[in-house]
Design goal:
Elements (H helix, E strand, L loop, with lengths): L2 H7 L3 E4 L5 E7 L3 E6 L7 H6 L2 H6 L2 E6 L18 H15 L4 E6 L1 H12 L4 E7 L9 H8 L2 H12 L4 H8 L3 H7 L8 H7 L3 E6 L5 H5 L7 E6 L6 H4 L1 H16 L1
Parallel strand pairs: 3-4, 3-5, 5-6, 6-7, 7-8
Antiparallel strand pairs: 1-2, 2-4
Protein name: Alpha/beta hydrolase
GO molecular function: hydrolase activity
Organism: Pseudorhizobium endolithicum
C-alpha cells in the first residue's frame, strides 16, 4: 500500500478517556508509533495541512494524529476541571491503549508540546522520546491568552494571523469551528512548573523553538537538562515554527535517526 492509499484508508477513530470524554484520533502509516499533539485551537488536520504526515510515514513511522479534548472532533467539556493535566495525559494513554501501544514517540506543538513534556514527566513508561515545538515545562501565566479569547474567536484569529500571516481557508475554518466555551475552559488554568520531573525522567527530549518565539528564553532554559537538546530555528516565530515544516522536519528526522543509530 503506497502513502496515498494509506492516507485514504485512514479514518477517524475514538478512544474513551478515564472520565468518559471521547478522544478522536486518526492513524496513518505503519511502523514505530509517533503521536502528534496539536496546538491550542487547532486540530489533527493541522499536521496534515502543514505537510508533516507523509514524510513521517515515508520515514517508517505510524503517525497517530490526536484531537485534544476541547478541540476538533473530540468531546468539548465546558468545565475547567475537565482540562487538568492528569486528564489530558489520560487521553493520550487511552489512545495508546486503544491501539495496543505500550510506548510511543511524542511530537507536539505549543499546547501539544507541553502535553508531550508532561507525559514524559508523569508517565515515562509510556513515552519513548519527546519532540516539543515552541513549548517548555516551566510555569506560565495564561492570562494573555484568556484576555484575547474574551474578545472572541475573530480577535483570536487576528492574533494568530499577526504571527502566521494570511491563513488558508481550511485553517480559518478550523479556528472558527471551535467551541468558545470549551476553549475558555481549556485555558482557565495557568501552567505549573514540572521541569524537575521532566529532567529526572531520563526521556530523550528535543526542544525546537523559533528565534522570534516569545517563549524562546524559557525553552533555552531546558539546555540545563541532561536529557534535553535545544534547536533554534532562525527567523521563525511561535506559529511559523510549526507551519514551516520544510525547515522543521529535517531537525525532527535527524533527532529520530540519531535515536536509532
Amino acid at each position: 500500500m503506497n502513502i496515498i492509499e494509506q492516507r485514504a484508508a485512514s479514518s477517524l477513530q475514538f478512544a474513551r478517556s478515564s472520565d468518559g470524554v471521547e478522544i478522536a484520533f486518526k492513524v496513518a502509516g505503519t511502523g514505530r508509533p509517533l503521536a502528534c499533539l496539536h496546538g491550542f485551537s487547532e486540530s489533527h488536520e493541522g499536521w496534515e495541512e502543514a505537510g508533516y504526515v507523509e514524510p513521517l510515514m515515508a520515514a517508517g513511522y505510524q503517525v497517530i494524529l490526536i484531537d485534544s479534548r476541547g478541540h476538533g472532533q473530540s468531546d468539548k467539556p465546558h468545565q475547567p476541571d475537565a482540562y487538568s493535566g492528569s486528564l489530558r495525559i489520560a487521553d493520550l494513554v487511552a489512545v495508546l491503549d486503544r491501539l495496543g501501544h505500550g510506548k510511543a514517540l511524542l511530537l507536539g506543538h505549543s499546547m501539544g508540546g507541553t502535553l508531550a513534556l508532561a507525559a514524559a514527566a508523569h508517565i515515562p513508561e509510556r513515552v519513548e522520546a519527546v519532540i516539543a515545538i515552541g513549548a517548555h515545562p516551566f510555569s506560565e501565566d495564561l492570562e494573555p491568552l484568556r484576555h484575547v479569547l474574551r474578545a472572541g474567536l475573530q480577535d483570536w484569529m487576528a492574533h494568530l494571523e499577526r504571527q502566521a500571516g494570511t491563513m488558508s481557508q481550511s485553517t480559518r475554518r478550523r479556528i472558527a469551528d471551535n467551541d468558545p466555551a470549551a476553549l475558555s475552559a481549556c485555558a482557565a488554568r495557568n501552567r505549573a512548573d514540572f521541569s524537575a520531573q521532566v529532567s529526572a525522567s531520563g526521556i530523550p527530549l528535543l526542544a525546537i523553538v523559533g528565534s522570534e518565539d516569545e517563549r524562546k528564553s524559557r525553552v533555552l532554559d531546558m539546555t540545563g537538562m541532561p536529557n534535553a537538546s535545544v534547536e533554534v530555528a532562525g527567523g521563525l516565530n511561535h506559529c511559523t515554527s510549526f507551519a514551516q515544516a520544510g525547515t522543521i522536519l529535517p531537525i525532527i528526522l535527524n533527532f529520530l535517526e540519531g535515536m536509532e543509530a
